[in-house]
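Problem 3 from the worked examples.
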Amino acid sequence: MSFELITIPCLSDNYAFILFNNENRSALLVDAPEAEPINKVINQNNLNLEKIFITHHHSDHVDGLAKILENHKAITIGAKADIHRLPRLDQYVEAGDKISFENQIGEIFDVSGHTVGHIALYFSSQNFLFSGDSLMALGCGRLFEGTAEQMWHSLSQLMDLPDATLICSGHEYTANNASFALTINPENPDLIKRSEEVKLARTKNLFTVPSTLELEKKTNPFLRPFDKNIRKNLNMIGSTDEEVFSKIRSLKDKF
């Protein structure tokens, strides 16, 4: 059984993702920012949309859902904690639950922080993590509802996944994130190299998402509050990882 991933740009900087079985064209959609580009990809690739997974309730992740469902009879899945503010869905899940797609098992993670009730979907067999606006390329989601403690806990869980995991996050924010990261970790050779690669990719209008967990662990400051250089640059040598993370998030909010 062979699977492929399609990254779909939506709106100004959002991404949706389609994971599909190459043999029978059955497909799973992650997030629904905008119907037109998603329906176009489904039709162009002759896909049968079976399931739709929603990471969180923000409008730029759900506004295309109704129009997509006008054309496709898919099972919709979202967070039980967000039942009161998501569109009506078929299945509600929480941390530790499993969902199946084409005999592949996806695990649900609670990744609250950006929102309370944000969930992520991880397929260990395919090394895909659909992280929405929790862990992002060279960044993490702004804390609109949750706390720094919640987000650090969420990211800490994800760091335990295999390094080869592909991080399929919800926005093309990488260039801005790289510019910020260099302000607090300019000594990091991996970050310097990645920043140049991101600049080049974006001048060619190429996607910088997905990334790998290995690369994020080497370059993403939100996964590196323990780093001695970051701590020194922030004058936080004796602080906890959570305190350093909170400071990094606060600085990024003002960047």
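Problem 4, a separate protein:
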Amino acid sequence: MTQQLNEHYYQTSDLSLSTTISLFFPIEDIDRSNPRKAVFIFRNTKELQELVEKYYRNELKISPQTYFNQLRVVKARLYANE
């Protein structure tokens, strides 16, 4: 699920997309209110929207090692303080 929370925030429960976005933009918050699905929240900007579009068009070039390392960081934050 990917959607705009409002004009100021962008939210997604897609772990792969969240990891990619977090390489360029900080995660503002993680909504864990649903125990089955976390929602990552980012500050919405034009640049973030362009990044998401490139992600879905498969136009991003990211080193696999860089991506994997960031995935570990995101998962650590996701599972912290459970």
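Solution to problem 4. The chain has one domain: 2-79. The longest helix spans residues 64-79.
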